[in-house]
Each structure stands twice: as structure tokens, then as C-alpha cells.
Amino acid sequence: SEEDLQQHFDRTIGEDQRIEPRDWMPEGYRRTVVRQIAQHAHSEIIGMQPEGNWITRAPTLRRKAILLAKVQDEAGHGLYLYSAVETLGADRGELTDRLITGRQKYSSIFNYPTLTFADVGVIGWLVDGAAICNQVPLCRSSYGPYARAMIRICKEESFHQRQGFELLMTMMKGTPGQREMVQDAVNRWWWPSLMMFGPPDAESPNTAQSMAWKIKRHTNDELRQRFVDMSVPQAEVLGVTLPDDELKWNAARGHYDFGEIDWTEFKRVVSGDGPCNVQRVAHRRRAHEDGAWVREAAAAHARRNTSE
Ligand code: ACO
Fold first, then answer.
1. What digits encode the pLDDT tens for the residues 255-268?
2. GO terms for biological process (predicted)?
3. ipTM value for the complex
């Protein structure tokens, strides 16, 4: 009966076991997992654009090869995630359609422009750093295919983060102009990186239920604090200043205090009115339309192979 199924599901979650595609699950659980994984997949794919912008202008062949590989990794992450969400019966074409018609979200962070090559380094350091903070605990997410996809993604993500840090270290050892470029990029990306973790817990409609279902393992504010604590000493090593006058160690809490995030900006960017939202979605839509012939050819090929 439905009641037995629910009990079995609750016990599986309670014992920290995984929910697998063929298991019974409450409709709300399925909907939440589909939503989160789809938004995550879209973020990886849209996230190729800000850095892709610098592939043709990377300063050396080595930097260009690294950046190409990194952007390809993001495509791979998107593909594992779309595959994970397909295990729940979602259709990838339909999800893409929702993305390019603005009906499904992707991370706010990718709506900011990459103005100089230092932005490539700062995305690696801060944006990928925030992504790791958020995603390492998702390796223990209760939905099996999601958790398993996260393991490989996190390994690659931590490589990306070191890549960014190494790039910035190199620039910080360069000319005063290069150091200024790094500081300027840090000033522009710091606050948007903190917004990646989502709204404050008190205003997060999904956190409590997602924590109870163990889809999420920590709240938005917990992970944001963890990210701040980890970034401050790294900024010191780099020799950059984080743009927040209120940032200081609080011995009683054992954490860094930090200033108020501009939640109005966050809401504006999430609702489609950030600096690059229109451009990002238009580019994705164009790439999808330009690729129509590939999908048609692949489908025709598959049909012929199965009928033979
Ligand atoms: N950008 C865009 N939308 C956001 C962001 C953000 N930074 N933060 C929260 N939201 C959205 C949520 O998706 C949710 O959307 P809904 O209208 O579909 O419900 C809404 O704002 C309310 O937020 P929450 O209740 O806090 O939502 P949730 O529990 O899903 O938590 C979070 C948001 C933390 C982003 C979670 O979904 C998550 O951990 N996702 C996996 C990681 C991920 O997607 N990373 C993408 C960027 S990293 C990268 O790709 C390199």
C-alpha cells in the first residue's frame, strides 16, 4: 500500500541509504530532485559562456589549453547531470526548452561579465571554490544518481579551483597593472560568489524540506559561512583584499563575521535582470538552434541502425 511505500522510503532516508530511480518516492521528492538537478545542469552549461569568452584571447598557448579543457569539463558536468535527471523520467529536450524560454533557473553567478583575463582566475578561485563548498556535501545526497555524479564533478571542480588560484598567483607576481587587474576582479566577483549559496535560510522556501529528505545536507547559510572562512586565509596568501569592511574574525563564534549581502541585487539577477541574463540565454538558444541538424542526423542514424 501507499503507506508501506512511504514507510520504506522514510526508513531508507533515515538510515542514510540511497534512493534509486526505480524506488517509490513521494511526488514532492521527485519534483525537488528534478528541479535541483536540472538547475544545476543548466548552470554548468550556461557557465561555459563567461569563461569561453576568453578562449580566443588567453595570453599563452598553455593558458589557452587549460581554459579549453576546463570549459569542456563544464560541458561534461552538464551532461552527467542531465543523465542523472533523466533517470527520473525528465526529458532533456524539454529541460533545455524550459531553460531557453526562461522557465527554469540557472545560477545567478553566470550572469556577470568577464571583463579581463583575471576574471578567469577569479572564477576558478572563488566561483569554483564556492561550487566545491556547496557540492562536496551533495556527494552524500540521498538521490543515488545525483550523489554519484557529484563525486567526479567535485574532483574536477577542485582541479579547476587550483587552476584559478595558480593563475592569480602568477598575475600577483607580475606587474602592478596585473595586480590591479586581479584586485578589480576580486572586487567584482566576491559578493556575487556569496549569493551563489542562495537566499538566507529564513527566506529559503526549499531548504527545510530538502534537508529532511537529505537532498541537501547543509543549509545555504552554513555553506556560505564555510566558504567565507575558507576564502579569507586564501586571500591573504594571494595578497588581495576582500571588498567587505565588516569582514573580521569572531573568536566567540569561531567564524568570520561578514557584511550584509545585497539581496535586492540577488533577486534582480535571479529574476532575469542581471548584467548578462539576456545575452546568456540568447546565446544558449542560438547554439541549440544551430545544433538542430546534429540532433536530426543522430536520430536518423539511430533509427536506421535499429531497423537494420
Ligand atoms: N541562482 C539562481 N537561483 C537560485 C540561487 C542562485 N544563486 N540560489 C537559489 N536559487 C533559487 C532556487 O533554485 C529556488 O528556485 P525555485 O524557484 O525553483 O524554488 C529559489 O531560488 C529559492 O532558493 P532555495 O529555497 O534556497 O532553493 P534550494 O533549496 O534549491 O537551494 C541551491 C539553492 C543552494 C543553489 C541548491 O539548489 C543547490 O545546492 N544546488 C546544487 C548546486 C548548483 O546548482 N550549483 C550551480 C552553480 S555552481 C556551478 O555550476 C559551477
1. 999 999 999 999 99
2. phenylacetate catabolic process
3. 0.98
At residue 280's C-alpha, the angle toward residues 275 and 283, to 5°, is: 140
Phi (first) and psi of residue 188, to 5 degrees: -80, -30
Q: How confident is the model at residue 232 (pLDDT cuts 50, 70, 90)?
A: very high
Distance from the alpha carbon of residue 61 to the mean position of ligand 1, in angstroms: 35
Instruction: Determine the distance separating the centroid of ligand 1 and the alpha carbon of 109, expressed in angstroms.
Output: 11
Going from the C-alpha of 155 to that of each of 72, 126, 135, 148, 229, the distances in angstroms are 15, 16, 10, 12, 21
Amino acid found at 83: S
Probe target for ligand 1 pocket from 204, 207, 218, 263, with the most ligand atoms within 8 Å of CB: 204
Q: What distances in angstroms separate CA 89 from CA 18, 30, 286, one per listed residue?
A: 18, 10, 26
User: What is the rounded end-to-end Cα distance, in angstroms, of the chain?
Assistant: 44
Characterize 177-208 residue by residue with b for buried, 16 or more Cβ atoms within 10 angstroms of its Cβ, and e for exposed. Answer: ebbebbbbbbebbbbbbbbbbbbeeeebeebe
The pLDDT tens digits of the residues spanning 165-221 come to: 999 999 999 999 999 999 999 999 999 999 999 999 999 999 999 999 999 999 999
Q: pLDDT tens for residues 24-58?
A: 999 999 999 999 999 999 999 999 999 999 999 99
For a ligand 1 pocket test, name from 80, 266, 270, 271 the mutation site with the most ligand atoms within 8 angstroms of its C-beta.
Answer: 270
Specify the residue with its C-alpha closest to ligand 1, atom 24.
204
Strand partners, 255: 250
